[in-house]
Specification:
Elements: E1 11-12, E2 15-22, E3 27-33, E4 38-42, H1 43-47, H2 55-59, H3 70-82, H4 92-101, E5 108-112, E6 124-128, H5 129-135, H6 147-156, H7 161-168, H8 172-179
Antiparallel strand pairs: 1-2, 2-3, 3-4, 5-6
């Protein structure tokens, strides 16, 4: 019988071994992927490079930054090219970790809150193209998805569109469009926000 090895703390691809799980016949390892998900695999799968990430990352093809990886395309074309990004996001792995932590999945985009600002964690959010389009409809203001429930709460509290617009640096027409469902139709307005 070969000597028992300890893989805790070792990294294999995107996985870091965090614990040993003993079973009936083989030792298995609990691993944490860089995206935060966990997976359980056998020693041989790790040491032979058969398992290098969790199922979530395999499914979305995060394993290698390539031209076919949708998140890598967003990073290479939008974030790091003509628009400028913070120094940390010049590293794809750091950008990828932020995007995954903030709910990115295939079909979503990274959008800036302030068009003049750089791509950076404090100036970006994840949105669908449709939501991103609604976000860009008003050039006089930049409402965020999290602003929409608050606008409805303020209106329910008796504030007029003019008064609400003053709080968001928006004109009353923009606020009326939100309240009448012309823009921001797909945002959950039942979410309660502390005022």
């Amino acid at each position: 019988m070969p000597p028992k090895c300890n893989l805790i703390g070792q990294t294999f691809g995107l996985l870091t071994v965090v614990a040993e799980i003993t079973g009936q016949d083989r030792v298995k390892w609990l691993c944490r992927c860089v995206c935060g998900q966990t997976t359980i695999t056998q020693t041989s799968n790790l040491t032979n490079n058969h398992t290098r990430s969790c199922r979530r990352c395999i499914r979305i093809k995060y394993n290698e930054p390539t031209a076919t990886n949708p998140l890598y395309k967003i990073w290479a074309v939008r974030v790091c090219s003509k628009h400028g990004c913070c120094s940390a996001w010049r590293n794809y792995e750091i950008f990828r970790a932020w995007a995954i932590d903030n709910g990115w999945r295939q079909g979503l985009w990274v959008h800036r809150k302030a068009d003049q600002g750089e791509y950076a964690p404090e100036n970006c959010f994840i949105a669908s193209r449709r939501l991103q389009g609604a976000y860009g409809q008003s050039q006089s203001t930049k409402l965020l998805p999290t602003d929409i429930p608050l606008i409805f709460q303020l209106a329910d509290g008796g504030l007029t569109p003019v008064e609400i617009g003053a709080k968001f640096n928006a004109d009353s027409r923009t606020i009326r469009d939100v309240l009448n469902g012309v823009t921001w139709k797909n945002v959950d307005v039942t979410m309660k926000i502390e005022v």
